[in-house]
Amino acid sequence: MPASIDGVLLDMNGLFRHWHNTGAHTSEQLAGLPHGTIARYAYHHPAYRLARVGILTDQQWADDVTERLANDYGPAIRDALGPWRADRGEADPEMTDLLTQLRRHLPVGVLSNCTDALHTDLQHHRIEFDHVFPSAHLGVDKPSPHAFRAAADHMGIPTHALAYFDDEPTFVQAAQSVGMQAQLFTGAPQFAAHLRRYGLPVAIRHEASGARRPHRDERRPLALRRLPSQHGC
Q1: Are strands 181-184 and 17-18 parallel, antiparallel or unpaired?
Q2: Integer distance in angstroms from the first to the last C-alpha of the chain?
Q3: Residue 18 carries which DSSP code?
Q4: Residue 189 contacts by C-beta under 8 Å, 6 or more apart in sequence?
Q5: CA 228, CA 113: separation in Å to the nearest integer?
Q6: pLDDT band at 2 (very low <50, low <70, confident <90, very high)
Q7: How far apart are CA 17 and CA 55, in angstroms?
């Protein structure tokens, strides 16, 4: 039986939101760009890290990506990037329903390596947390221990009394290093089972599991495994 907890902290992408890269791929096709060009300009450039820790806003970062693409491929590229920016990923109905059940019993926060777009994205997907921590607002990103400690401090809960779930093993290890009861996320059924071990009465309901959840390896291309696929999260 695990130790008791006073709250839960969760990762975002790979748990509550999945990416299929359709927006970036559509923009690349419209612009005649080689496959993977947008990911290279958007996420393999220092400007992305600046946005992820809040030095640039999400819009400033996207404008920088646009200008660099336009400089290299011509100004017409600007008209093709709408699908990339409009794509916000796909919400996971099973996990969203489990979150609703969980919040009836404990405060729940989300900690994501993300630009300041996280709040509007959650509104778009109608996903509600008690506490929202994009790394851009904390000024530090995972796996820094400071990110986990800052989230716990804002929630007003000691790290040892927080359960944490993430699909990235490195981030799980980092959360454990500050004393959190951290577990590797491998799917909604496993997540629900862990919560029940804490005595929380949650279950995957039939009506929430109708939509197909992408297989773990379908969420992102392997080369981009820990990179946001679309717009900064």
Answers
A1: unpaired
A2: 34
A3: E
A4: 204
A5: 9
A6: confident
A7: 25
CA gap 210, 74 in Å, rounded: 44
Q: Which one has a higher pLDDT value, 3 or 55?
A: 55
Kindly write down the DSSP assignment for every residue of 185-217, as one continuous string.
---HHHHHHHHHHTT------GGGS-SPPPPGG
Q: Which two tokens stand for residue 41?
A: 């300009």
Pair of tokens at residue 229: 């696929």
Cβ within 8 Å of residue 167, ≥6 positions away: 11, 14, 15, 184, 185, 186, 216
| Backbone Cα Rg of the chain | 18
Check residue 208 and give its pLDDT: 58
Model pTM?
0.88
The residue-averaged pLDDT of 163-170 equals 98
Burial class (CB in 10 A: 0-12, 13-18, 19+), 199: exposed
Instruction: Give domain 7-18+89-224's CATH number out of 3.10.20.600, 3.40.50.1000, 3.40.630.30, 3.30.70.270.
Output: 3.40.50.1000
> What gap in Å lies between CA 212 and CA 230, rounded to an integer?
20
Amino acid at 158: P
69 Cβ contact list (under 8 Å, min separation 6): 33, 37, 38, 41, 77, 81
Task: Write the CB contacts of 123 (distance below 8 Å, at least 6 apart in sequence).
Answer: none
Write the pLDDT tens digit of every residue in 40-84: 999 999 999 999 999 999 999 999 999 999 999 999 999 999 999
